[in-house]
Write a structure and sequence with these properties.
One of its GO terms (cellular component) is cytoplasm. One of its GO terms (molecular function) is acid-amino acid ligase activity. By secondary structure, the chain is an alpha/beta fold. The chain has an eight-stranded antiparallel sheet. Helix 1 (5-21) packs across helix 6, helix 16 (430-445) runs antiparallel to helix 17 (479-492) and helix 19 packs antiparallel against helix 20 (548-556). The protein is globular, with a radius of gyration of 24 Å. The structure holds adenosine monophosphate.
């Protein structure tokens, strides 16, 4: 970046004004360049586009697809076939997407153009955010983990988006230039042991506490998880700082070496942190107290992450929580240009030059419409055409149009598409489950308790089948309240199919299973052990019976079961 930061941020805002004012033309051009770049791809050749690049021909020739439809092509790429299959130039890397509520990951093609979009979106978002929440020359506590990249048997790079993006030098330079330097050394972030990295993130944050202006993570769960860990290890962290000696729990030599460069004995700081921690009431506001110059917390806090907002705000105290960008391993969608709006009401403004977007209305007529043809107030499923070889790809997300920024829409994330819970004619989505848990949380809040995490399961082991909700709670609730919660959960599913099945007893009473503290951490650790990325991992909101390991973790940790008394 040659110009100074002020000129640069002015420039990115101006550029965004230009493209967002002319979204339809930009979309046409984006589609044209994607189709021209990839004209020689076998997939496009087989569809008879014959060089046409206009949206009308594109929609007439190219079918809407899901990941499953593209699997035969992706598998050939995985195996190392380097003819132009989905893209003109061979794909050199695949990324592992977790974009599912059922805990099943999938590989999607990756291209470096993702980085260009990432830098553009993050810079624009930063520049706009900085007008309301300015950050100057500080450091950032970034709770990220870079799981190692590997290779497919065909020699392609394999990893998560985070590992491709955050390990990229160009990206890091761009980020450092605009935001603030990440306080954790890169050697630490890249280490394989997630628990050790988390401990060091916390330690680095404390060492640089006066300089930290921003705390961030990709998903807000990571910040909550970090401070749940802090509750357990804060005294050990204080000891490390007091003595200037790193805890023996850190065993990775490269991490010890990197940390030894920044950890020096500082009894005064250790005493101060000790005083802060012992003076807090149930850890309320710990982040604000530990990082007095922090301006805000930045992490995706919508969709399935909304469940962690109460815990996040509890730890944050008065510090604002700003929800970040909206995107997927497949491609970017948009960013939050209204940082002071609470996450519950946040929308993401679409960048019309990242991908070519279509929207399938959830209404009677499911005919896809273009980016600028969407209606405010309506819900749609997103379809993407990307530079990395996905054409008319159903992302699997449902969004609602809340308005327009110039001529590009602003989208509220609603839920993953499709049904999460179904036994017969009932159809309940991820959002229906979330709302049921929110309703039960209100009963727990009366006892000053919070839901730590939750998931669900369809139990068909005996007739009639029934829904099971697993809740981890941050303390002990009375039997009476928990019984009420089970009934409340049951009554909260108001889809007509569920209601009639419950009344007719073709679906049995909902069962609440309360699990021990730490159960969801065990599930998290299980997924990490299976190679998932700690940065991107999301709790699966429904666990199928076939996922025997996760079902075993849940069931082994059940403290008590409560059967709903609704519809008796
Ligand atoms: P992944 O492919 O693992 O990167 O996950 C992408 C998925 O995460 C998206 O398809 C969404 O379902 C979800 N997601 C990403 N960003 C947001 C956001 N800002 N709000 C809610 N959900 C999001």
């Amino acid at each position: 970046m040659s110009e100074n930061l002020e000129e640069y941020t002015k420039k990115v805002i101006e550029e965004f004004e230009v493209i967002s004012n002319d979204a339809e033309r930009v979309q046409r051009e984006t589609l044209k360049s994607i189709l021209e770049e990839n004209a020689s791809a076998e997939y496009l050749q087989s569809l008879g586009l014959n060089g046409r690049t206009d949206p009308e021909s594109f929609k007439a020739c190219v079918p809407l697809v899901t990941h499953d439809d593209l699997l035969p092509y992706i598998n050939r790429i995985f195996d190392g076939e380097n003819s132009p299959i989905l893209t003109g130039k061979p794909i050199t890397a695949l990324v592992l997407s977790s974009g599912t509520t059922k805990g099943k990951s999938k590989y999607v093609p990756w291209s470096d153009t993702f980085l260009d979009s990432a830098v553009q979106i993050l810079h624009t978002a930063f520049a706009i955010r900085d007008r309301e929440l300015p950050i100057k020359n500080g450091k950032c506590l970034s709770i990220v983990y870079l799981s190692a990249q590997s290779q497919t048997k065909g020699g392609l790079k394999l990893g998560t988006v985070a590992s491709h993006v955050v390990s990229n030098k160009r990206y890091n330079e761009a980020m450092t230039a605009i935001k603030s330097e990440i306080c954790t050394p890169q050697e630490v972030i890249c280490a394989p042991d997630f628990q050790q990295v988390l401990y060091c993130h916390l330690l680095c944050g404390l060492i640089y506490r006066d300089q930290i202006q921003l705390l961030e993570a990709l998903f807000s769960y990571s910040i909550v998880q970090a401070f749940r860990t802090f509750e357990q290890v804060w005294e050990e962290l204080c000891n490390d700082i007091r003595e200037g000696v790193l805890s023996s729990r850190i065993t990775v030599p490269s991490v010890r070496a990197a940390m030894s460069k920044i950890l020096k004995p500082d009894p005064e700081l250790a005493n101060l942190i000790h005083k802060i921690c012992t003076g807090l009431n149930n850890w309320y506001g710990v982040i604000q107290e530990l990082f007095p110059n922090a301006k805000y917390l930045l992490a995706i806090a919508t969709g399935s992450m909304e469940a962690y907002l109460p815990s996040l705000r509890h730890y944050a105290g008065e510090l604002p929580v700003v929800t970040n960008d909206y995107g997927a391993s497949e491609g970017w969608v948009g960013t939050n240009l209204h940082p002071t709006v609470p996450a519950e009401f946040a929308s993401y403004t679409v960048f019309p030059n990242c991908c070519y977007y279509e929207f399938i209305p959830l209404s009677e007529d499911p005919k896809p419409v273009g980016l600028t043809e969407v209606n405010v107030g309506e819900e749609y499923e997103i379809v993407m055409t990307t530079r990395s070889g996905l054409y008319r790809y159903k992302l699997g997300d449902v969004v609602k149009v809340t308005g327009f920024y110039n001529s590009t829409p602003e989208l509220k994330f609603i839920r993953r598409s499709g049904t999460l819970l179904t036994i017969n004619i009932d159809k309940n989505t991820e959002n229906d489950l979330r709302l049921a848990v929110v309703a039960a949380s209100k009963l727990l809040a009366e006892e000053k308790l919070e839901v730590v995490d939750y998931t669900s399961h369809i139990d068909l082991s005996k007739e009639p089948g029934h829904y099971v909700i697993f809740l981890e709670i941050n303390g002990e609730a009375s039997e009476e309240v928990l019984s009420e919660c089970s009934t409340c959960l049951d009554k909260s599913f108001v889809d007509p199919g569920y209601l009639s099945s419950r009344k007719g007893n073709t679906i049995g009473p909902l069962e609440l299973r309360v699990v021990r503290r730490g159960t969801f951490q065990k599930i998290f650790d299980h997924f990490i052990g299976m190679g998932a990325s700690a940065t991107q991992l999301k709790t699966p909101r429904c666990v199928p019976a076939t996922n025997t390991k996760v079902m075993q973790i849940l069931n082994e940790n059940v403290l008590n079961k409560y059967i709903s008394a609704a519809f008796n």
